[in-house]
Design a protein that fits this description.
The protein is built from no helices and seven strands. It is mainly β. It has a domain of 56 residues: SH3 type barrels (Roll).
Length: 93
């Protein structure tokens, strides 16, 4: 468990900011382990996909520090996530 000193004024982890961003995969280059992804505003970025097997265009992945860490289940729409008090992401109620 983290101590209060490890959080900033908004309650985010001072090391990683508890930021996980949902991005839609646009294209995948398996040879390089990179995918072109875009956010809800259409901004595109390259993302490392080595932690996930079989990433395909159209799926939504949770990205932190330029790496896809998890697949979003149930076709979660981009922008359809909210931060909970513990820093994890969840669907808004």
């Amino acid at each position: 468990m983290r101590t209060p000193a490890e959080y900033d004024a908004e309650g985010h982890c001072i090391t990683c900011s508890d930021e996980g961003i949902p991005l839609r995969v646009v294209a995948v280059t398996p040879a390089t382990g990179l995918a072109l992804c875009e956010d809800a505003a259409g901004r595109r970025t390259e993302v490392l996909t080595g932690l996930l097997e079989g990433v395909v265009p159209g799926e939504v992945v949770l990205v932190h520090a330029g790496a896809a860490l998890a697949r979003m289940s149930g076709g979660t729409p981009l922008g359809g996530l909210a931060r909970s008090g513990d820093g994890s992401c969840q669907r808004p109620i």
